[in-house]
Amino acid sequence: MLGARRILPAAALIAMALAPSPAGGAEAADVIVSDNFYMPETLTVQAGSTVLWEQQGDLPHDITADDDSWSSHPACAPFIPGSCMANGDTYSRAFAEPGTFGYYCTLHGTPGNGMAGTIRVVEPGFVFPTTVDDVRATKSGTGLKVLGSATFGGLAPFEVGTDVAGDSVHGLPAILGYDLTKASIGQPDPTSGDLSFVLDLVDLPPTGGLPDAAIYYWDLNLVPAGGEPYGFRIEGSLTDLTAIPTPSTATPAFTVRGCGAEASTCTFSGTPVDAVMDGEANRITVSVPSGVLAQVTGRPVIGSKIVAGTFGYEGASVTSDPGTSGAGGPASDRLTITGSHTVASPAVSVDAVPVGATPSFGTPATVASDGSFTADVGGLAPGTYDVWAQACFGTNCATRSTTVTL
Description:
Number of domains: 3
Radius of gyration: 25 Å
Oligomer: single chain
Number of strands: 32
Low-confidence stretches: 1-26, 246-250, 310-318, 320-331
Structural class: mainly beta
Helix content: under 10%
C-alpha cells in the first residue's frame, strides 16, 4: 500500500531571516537535513536566492560552511540541549553572488566528506530548477516498479576561465571593448541541449551602437567518455564584415569549425551559429546546437567534456584580435580557459531503502521525451520502504520520495 509522500523540491526560493527558526509555516524546504545526509546533496539556485534547510532527522546536526565563514549553530555540541538543529528546526541563508559553496555537519562530516553538501549559485535569468513532479511505486514480483514524471531545468553558463581587465589591450581597441574578462559554458534549455558559450568583456559598445570589429577565437576540445579528443573552434565577430563599409546593424557572424588534433587543420569553412551582443551587460553569447557540434567533430556530444584545447591562437585560449595595433602595443587579448563543462542530458535514477535510510540512487530509470520515467528495483524483502527518485540535468537536480509497504 502507498503511504504519505515527502516532497523535496530543488530550488524553492524562500525569503527568510538568516537565523535558525522553528518550523511552523507551509514553506517547502530546499534541502532536507536527515541522519546523516543532506538531500539533495547538490542544489543549484540563482544568485540572490535564499536557501532553506529543514531538519527532519532524529540526531542533532548543524550546517557549517567549508571555510567556517558561516554556520547555523556555531556552538553545536551533541550533549548540550538546544545547541544544534533539532527535528523541525529550519535555517536559511541568502546567496548573493555566483559561485560554489560547500558546507558540512560538524558532528557527522568534514568538508567534502561524510555529511556534506554543496550550494551551486548561478547568474540569474538563465535557468529554472529541476523538479520531480510525481513518484509512485507498485509491487512487481519481488521488487517494485517505480514510475513518475520530472520537469528538467537547464544549466546556467558557469565560469570556466577568467582574465584581469586592462591587461593586454591598448589604444582604440581598449575603447571599443576588446578586453576579455571571463568565459562561461552552459546549457540553458534542457529540451534542446544547445550549448551557450559566453564571453564577458569590458566596455562593449551599447547594444545596436558602434559595432565591435574584433575577431574572437575560442579553441576547445570535445572529449567523449573513454574516447579521443577532437578539437573545434568557435570563431567570429560581432559585425558581419562582408557588410562593411555600410554595416547598418551589428549583425554577428560566428561559425564553428572542426579542427582535429591540430589548430592548423581546422576546416576552411565553418557552420554558422547564432550570437548576440549585449552592450549593457558587456557580454557576447554564442549558441551552438548539440547537433552542429556533433557534425563538425564527428564525436558523440552527450556525456562528453568540453575542455581547453592543446593548441590554438596564443595557446589554449579565448582570444580577441582586431588585427591592428594601438598606442603601446599589439591590440590583442587572451583569456586562458581553466575549467571544463560536461554536456548534460536529462537523467533519472531511483532507489528503495528502509524507512529513514540514505538512498544511493543506483538504479537508472528510462526517461521519455515528456519527462515521464520508469524503473524496476528488485530483490526486496517484505517490509516498508522509502522509494526515492532523483532527476538531474547535469548538476541541476531534484529529489522526491514516497513510502511503500510490500
